[in-house]
Amino acid sequence: MTATIEPEVGKSRRRKEDERLITGRTRWTDNIALPGMLHLAVLRSPLAHAKIVSIDTSAAKEAAGVVAVYTAADLDPEGAIGMPCAWPITPDMAAPRRPVLASDRVNFAGEGVAVVVARSSAEAHDALEAIEVEYEDLPPVLDLEAALAEDAPLVHEELGSNKNAFWVFDSAEAGTGGNVEEALSSSEVVLKRRFRQQRLVPAFMEPRACVVDPTGAQLTMWSATQVPHILRVMSALTLGIPEHKLRVIAPDVGGGFGGKIGVLPEEMMSVLVANKLGKPVKWNESRSETMLAAHHGRDQIQDITISAKADGTVTGLKVELLANLGAYNGLVGPGVPILGAFMFNAIYKIPAYHFACTNVFTTTTLTDAYRGAGRPEATFAIERIMDELADELGMDPVELREKNWIKHEEFPFTTVCGLTYDSGNYEAATEKAKELFGYDALRREQKERREANDPVQLGIGISTFTEMCGLAPSRVLGSLDYGAGGWEYASLRMLPTGKVEVTTGASAHGQGHETAWSQIVADQLGVSFEDVEVLHGDTQSSHKGLDTYGSRSLVVGGIAIVKAAEKVVAKAKPIAAHLLECSEDDLEYSGGKFTVKGTDSSTTIQDIALAVFAAHNLPDGVEPSLDSDATFDPENFSFPHGTHLCAAEVDTETGQVKLRSYVCVDDVGKVVNPLIVEGQVHGGLAQGIAQALFEEAVHDESGTLTTGTFADYLLPSAADLPSFTTDRTETPSTTNPLGAKGVGEAGTIASTPAVVNAVVDAVRQFGVNDIEMPLTPMRVWNAVRGGASNAGGPGGEAGGGLGSIDASGGAQ
């Protein structure tokens, strides 16, 4: 009897890459050392907005170990180099040049004005202190609404305005739904709320770094980047380097979360300096530099208006956004709010929809993609206002959602935005989550605590979400004026001994690609998991790709691997028929083995690989190779969904928030590796909860970042978070052969509104209907005190222990 091979897909494999990553026995950008390598340090502006009157580098040039000091006049004397933006969302979008180094003016605190080149990193940083820069202060531009006033000071005087672009989607004009103004004017209930998405720092584990070696036939750049292929193309276009003469390598990268998708001034600076000196150079930043100058995320003002019938049926949704781009356009920064535009309707059958976004320049660090990129912002707004609508109508918030969500039998469903959701079952996910959570029992406990005037109140938060991920369909991206496609590439190389090498255009920075891709190939070709090697992150070994972001690795890159494997099998079939002396029509293929129907005569892919290597006995005219590649461009996004439930205890006397329990049931389609999925969900939850309760990048009135270290910018530790209860339902995607949907951003997208809804629910009886994030003890206490003094409620005005509240935030 032939042993049955257990499928790899669906198995909780420990990650192949973890042994080297956890032990540090690997290569990061900053531990690369080349012969004769020099070190770079960047002098950054302490001012948010100022003219540069003069820069004196003479003393720095004489400092110990210093080889050179450069300003913009040295590296870009014509002022011709500007960082690229790949997403001009409107034809008239303002596009000020972002220089490698500032020349005449700085536009945010942290912008580079000079670079020191020295024999060691310490010497380069020491010499920065010897550079003298004379600045002439200009007024900072910080407030989004004030920035649009006619008399507002300008970030870029040449533009004549701080407005970057204005982008609109209207369902009536698009023919995908009704007229919002008519819905608002004719509905029985109309509710308007303003929500604030605070500014966040991606706070990846490994700071940004770059090494450039100009001494070979090709210029080689190592970078801690998520996008080596995009970086190669954009560097070639930006600097005029022939693309075939540039090799970009992303070695093991310590996290990104969107924060490493940019094409950086420091990367271009490193190339310019290396070419100028003819020697390899390294730039790496400190943690404080990361927080100051790496791009930030979120930062929106959201004005949301929803209308409904008295029975809770939603009739219209109007969204008006102000989005802070910071001082410049990031690589995809202007388009981040536009990604969210298609998700404000979420899982609901909303008949009329209007979305308008104004992007605004300010004198702050630029913003760009951060985990979820536009979709967490959208989910937060719709899930918050659904809770507000439920309160207005006196309905249970789950009941209101159920009344309006798309039912499982209605899939595929075309939304008011024109997207077609292919599959889903919101009822099943919600029912399972409620059961695991003990929803009804917690509601009873909440009622008892309110009636008892308990100083510690209980709140229950709900977030039912979906997202568009697998950022891919090239035609859709083209219709949104995105500067690239959404396809992904993979190749499979069959080695003579039956082992397999996979090259993938998806570039991992912690997701576990090597493990998941090995599982996929093992099932497709019938080889063992251990016999698959995955190569990635090097534009020489994996020459083609569009990299990793937007939860696209599996549902785009993984499917490219499946398609390449199918081609391997197709190439092997005529050779198998020849070796088995039968017709191709008589062959069956399963688990990596070709078998003659009705017999036990068979041969494996591995046997065929060796026969191809020898090439002694192949059919006439057949190429001696099984190697195959594929480029996959999906026809649609994928739409994972889920229900997240949070129970929060709020001490009304101190503002302290404690997350008592958190349950999430996600549906990410077919799962390749449950262990990796669990890790992705846990990590996403930590980041989403951190936005709700802990994190905020704050600038003072002069535009200086006051949260430039982890002493001031609060990240939660394991002690600050509850143990999560996670589970899954499974409705396979119909748009790819694996049935998979994305998972990388789900936890972050869903968790923030679940936590905020829970805290607001706990103190709503005090007259509180919103608290600005992060929900620090001081903000919660102030909300309770203000609400109680205005609206009354259990316990009246909060008191006691007031002087002990820590206003800096976080759970103390």
From TrEMBL:
InterPro entries: Ald_Oxase/Xan_DH_a/b, Ald_Oxase/Xan_DH_a/b_sf, Ald_Oxase/xanthine_DH-like, AldOxase/xan_DH_MoCoBD1, AldOxase/xan_DH_MoCoBD2, AldOxase/xan_DH_Mopterin-bd_sf. The keyword NADP does not apply. Residues 23-139 form the Aldehyde oxidase/xanthine dehydrogenase a/b hammerhead domain. It holds the Pfam family Ald_Xan_dh_C. Residues 791-812 are annotated as: Disordered. Residues 791-803 have a biased composition (Gly residues). Keywords: Molybdenum, Oxidoreductase. It comes from the Bacteria. Gene3D superfamilies: Aldehyde oxidase/xanthine dehydrogenase, a/b hammerhead (3.90.1170.50), Aldehyde oxidase/xanthine dehydrogenase, molybdopterin binding domain (3.30.365.10). PANTHER family: ALDEHYDE OXIDASE 1-RELATED, XANTHINE DEHYDROGENASE. This is Xanthine dehydrogenase family protein molybdopterin-binding subunit. The lineage of its organism: Bacteria, Bacillati, Actinomycetota, Actinomycetes, Pseudonocardiales.
